Amino acid sequence: MNIVDLIDAEHSTVGGKAAPLAELARAGFDVPSGFVVPATTYQAAATALGLTELSNDHADEARSRILSSRLPDGVTDDVSRALKRITEGASTDYVAVRSSSIAEDSDDASAAGQHDSVLALRGTEQVCQAILTCWASLWTERAVAYQARQASQAALGMAVIVQRFVDANVSGVMFTGATTAIEATWGIGERLVSGHITPDSWRITDSGIVERRRGSKTERTDRRDGQLVTRHTASTEQEELCLTDRDVLRLRALGEEVSSTLGGPRDIEWAIGDDTIWVLQARPITALVPDSPAPALASTADGCITTTGKPASPGIATGPVRLVRGPADFPKVKRGDVLVCQHTDPAWTPLFTIASAVVTETGGVLSHAAIVAREVGIPAVLAIPRATELLTPSSTVTVNGNTGHIVVEQ
């Protein structure tokens, strides 16, 4: 079977991202309608291309083979028919195409940000190429390294989910539990989950909203026809919280219902469009978020500079600062270094098995990099303005991922 309607999808063939969405759709939640190209279709194509063992030794060649191939005619025809079905009656015919590995979104391995998604597409040709892109992302350095750490070959099963695209006014991530944590930003949420912006955040308990924190939200991304356009936000957008208290409480109630339906606390990606909260992903929480701390820049009694950001992954580590501005700096990273950067990217996660800690200028504690840092077990402190200036390569720092404090050793 080349195509499975999302509402009929089962985990064994459609992967960790699609299966919970299918369960939620069957239960009546607002999940964008869609279909899945099951893992069996990928496996047949990979076998035909001679790709069987997941390894970095021939990852570049594997990606090249996949991206230069074409979907079988039968699959293309089925995709075309399914696209017409899910977009019929919709306000637009744009869709999102997302990877759904058999091994991702499990109880102990999220694979957060490790595989590709392609957004705001229309038409059979674009969607079929995006399916190949998702397949090829199984063979990126970051995905292979992550899977090697999990000591499993299960990720050789790669399904792809295609859904109606949500033109969101606000998007975000929510971790449910005794305390619900929410992070949100204007527009489409890709730059939030990738750690490129510092979002607004809330914490909610049975007593109500117990914490509100305004992020910088310096950018927002929206669809303009077939392009995702990122622009700088106006000062009014930066100063205004992007969710009302009513929205926050609606989200918490939704999170509790999703958790109850799926059987435990969940990491939920969501988007609000036309006053509807759409559930885009609902995976198990693999590691808890540290509690929020307080203040900013200070000096200790012995003259050591201390700065504070968001504690994103618990633990304490000391090491030399290594400024990383992009992939060109990756070879410079040595075991035990403290990564200090403007923001991280999913492609950077192989460095997390080498570094002793991570410090960034932007980002939220529910971002992909923060999730992976918690899974790997290294401290992470995010959203420290000018961190790349304050923490110089000649210095040694202690990173406290429990409190968010950074101490520069003298």
TrEMBL record:
Domain spans labelled Pyruvate phosphate dikinase AMP/ATP-binding: 12-288
Positions of the PEP-utilising enzyme mobile domain: 334-404
GO MF, one annotated term: ATP binding
Cited PANTHER family: PHOSPHOENOLPYRUVATE SYNTHASE-RELATED, PPDK_N DOMAIN-CONTAINING PROTEIN
Name of the protein this chain belongs to: PEP/pyruvate-binding domain-containing protein
Organism encoding this protein: Microbacterium sp. A8/3-1
